[in-house]
Prior knowledge:
Elements: H1 3-21, H2 30-40, H3 47-58, H4 63-84, E1 94-95, E2 98-99, H5 101-104, H6 107-126, H7 134-148, H8 153-162, H9 170-194, H10 200-227, H11 230-233, H12 239-242, H13 248-252, H14 254-272, H15 280-291
Helix pairs in contact: 1-4, 2-6, 3-4, 3-9, 3-15, 4-6, 4-9, 7-9, 8-9, 9-10, 10-14, 14-15
Amino acid sequence: MDFSSWMSAIQERTERALERLLPAADVAPARLHDAMRYSTLGGGKRVRPLLCHGAGEILSAAPEALDLAACAVEMIHVYSLVHDDMPCMDDDVLRRGKPTCHVEFDDATALLVGDALQSLAFQTLAGPGVQTDAARQISMLHLLAQASGSRGMAGGQAIDLAAVGQQLNVRELEFMHIHKTGALIRAAVLLGAHAGNADDAALDSLSHFANRVGLLFQVVDDILDAEASTATLGKTAGKDAAQNKPTYVSLMGVADAKRLAADLLREAKTALEPLGPRAQRLAELADYIVQRTY
């Protein structure tokens, strides 16, 4: 199977699994469940589920286990987007080509959507079918919790909010994005590995790959925010500059940001070399992250 076909197959698997795991829109409280499905289904690149499956396939994880781990990390990601778009955060009106959750529903519902998706993510990861080894499943729960909280994604968002209008250097910006974006991307890779037969050597290689590809994703995001249109992105273009947020583009310029992306791509692929041909999908995903247009 070529990469494009593999990617489409994983995206379709993830969509079906999310449809199954999310409460039906007609189940009480119907408005909340409708908003959860509205925010989660029918959009997004599913980069984190792709990374989860790509890592898990290296270590012979069952596809059904990877579906659950991938959906758990995607639910955390979607909850973060719903909250990030709210007026008290980035105050955006467009996400994945349609009105953001708080615009389509209301602020209170959007807040509850994020809360409920976070809970459902851990319910999914704690349930049957993820890992036959209970200790490893607990480790997966710990990994996702840490990546989502104040030492991970939520902490990175707090740093991001505090940095508006500030002059950060590249190291400070990297620290912010290791938490805000990178932590959940690293979790996606390592959850996939832990769903299979991960050994310490493989985990070390995958962790280094994930650290590089997490930063790579953010650098490319900053470039796209500066260069792509709102129609292409499916979200408001130029928002970072309008809000005076520090980005790789504002610190380095587009040309140097693109050179940094090329360096990070090379480092990510180098990290995969000890895994040999088994890591082909992850290498292809790193290329996709650089080449994406939204």
